[in-house]
Amino acid sequence: MPTLLRGSKKGPRRQFSGDPEDYRLSLVEHLEELRDRIMRSIGIICVTWTGGWFVEPHLYGYVDVMMTKAVVARLPKGSEFHEIFTHAPDAFMLKLKLSFMIGLIVAFPFLVLQLWGFIVPALKPKESAPLRKLAPTSAILFALGVFFAWEILPSAVGWFASYIEEFPGTSLYQEAGSLVFFVLKMLAAFGVAFQLPLVVYILGELELLSADTLIKYWRQSATAIFVVAMIVTPSQDPMTMLMMAIPLVILFMMSVYVVRFSQNRKRKRAKLLNPDESGTYPLE
Q1: Cα 150 from Cα 43, distance rounded (Å)
Q2: N or C: which end of the chain has fewer CB within 10 A?
């Protein structure tokens, strides 16, 4: 019979005896937990999507006015700016997409909680202890990314519109809602991208990466961040890529030194508790 360990909400966890049947039962329970987490995540998105349906008219009006002012201020004299629909169903589809994006942004911290709830039972107590603040930290980083994008987007959109003056006699007619949808996509992209320091910290705490290795290959890491920023940014332009990549590189380096501090502290504790014969002290 397997020995019972610290329990979870669904029941105690097992210490496996080596019997393949034990692993088969554990796999079934694992899949059931995964199914439950996925269903909860879908339910969360449905609830926030529904809320986004009612919030969308107010949010759209505010964001659209803000972005329109940023664009019109940089248009040359004589140029017109209009947002138009080209097909009758477009208004409904726009409302559907905008409400989904609003719901997805609001649901993100709750989805992280579901992910964390699925992962934590598989971790040992000493592995999960440093990571218990993962969900609130993730929410803070997501909010920081959203705030950063919100502050720079009006200036960025105005900068793009300023190039219209190089084409005299032209006016700007664009699909209704495209500016607002662009803003929402950028908010979501920046919020997700700002999770990078958390990912680095988790990998360091689980000893899958060392701070010394990250520092040694910081140039390659910075290059990878720029490539990811180029892929993630919805507009696919160099300006937006730089606006995302530069703060991410700074946050990445900060997280590397946090991991270095944590791993050095582990080495010192290991040195006091369990020095080996060679005089070197491995991480716990």
Answers
A1: 28
A2: N
**Angle made by CA atoms 217, 220, 222, in degrees to the nearest 5:** 105
pLDDT of residue 128: 65
199's tokens: 């990912």
CA atoms within 13 A on the CB side of 209: 21
Q: Specify whether the CB–CB gap between 48 and 54 falls below 8 A.
A: no
First to last CA, the chain: 30
pLDDT (tens digit, 9 = 90+) per residue, 85-136? 888 898 999 999 999 999 998 998 888 888 877 777 766 666 666 666 677 7
Reported pTM: 0.72
Burial label, 267 (beta-carbon count in 10 A; 0-12, 13-18, 19+): middle
**Residues 111, 105: Cα–Cα separation, whole Å:** 10
Buried b (16+ CB within 10 A) or exposed e, 19-39: eeeeeeeeeebeeebeeebee
